[in-house]
Amino acid sequence: MKIRYAVPALVAVTALALTGCTNDDSAVKESSSNSASVVSAEEIMKSGVLIIGTDAEYPPNEFKDADGNPTGWGVELANAVAEEMGLEPEWQIMPFEGILPRIEEGAINMGSSSFTDNAERQKTVDFVNFLDAGSMWAAPVGSNVNPDDACGLTIAVQADTVQHTDELPAKSKACEDAGKPAIEILPFDGQPAATTAVVQGQAAAFSADFPVTVDAVNSTDGVLETVGEMFDAAPYGFAVQKGSGMDKAVQKALQTLMDNGTYLEILTKAGFEAGAITEATINAGK
Question: What is the pTM of this model?
């Protein structure tokens, strides 16, 4: 199977994709405010190409290889879905916060970037679910950081993830409601930068999806450790445009991969088979 790469993906996000150090996504937001053009599953199938957006800054799920191309088990699974659909995957790397607007407007066909499927995101796109994953914290070994009582601490996170938009703001509000200092939330464009911030002492801990936290801890050679248990388990999903019919098309391909063993083989090789599901659902997140 031939794989195409487009890095950076689109003119509107060229500067962002090259620098990887800014969240100024005004061009994307402005573009997405225009009327969306629905690209049907039939049109995509006829084109022979599946255009997939990712930010490639969330190892081991999606990240860049030595040549700057997207890789990781999430990329491998999306490639398998494309192949099952008889399509050639064309990967476009862009800022995380720009992917869903691009899907909504029909500029890309699918998002594969460790998206947690939730009700808020379902307002703009549909999700085909492929994994159960929760959040987990990591901190320096022996630090005694408690995710349930982090009032007054600085916590790093990848920008625009559910940890940034939902988990940490809720924890911080609970601190303030209890008369304690708020949590200082320190967002970064990519998970590697959030991990480095903890290693270098800029933050007391970071919060990320379970597979990402485990991989980040393993990459620090004993400097960091996981703290607490996994919590807020929710489904990952491939994001597709509403009204396009791609939800059913991707669901069918993914279910075939689940039934023939390819799906579990990919997860097992990555070491995350514990989050495997047996049925490809649509919009299962709440």
Answer: 0.79
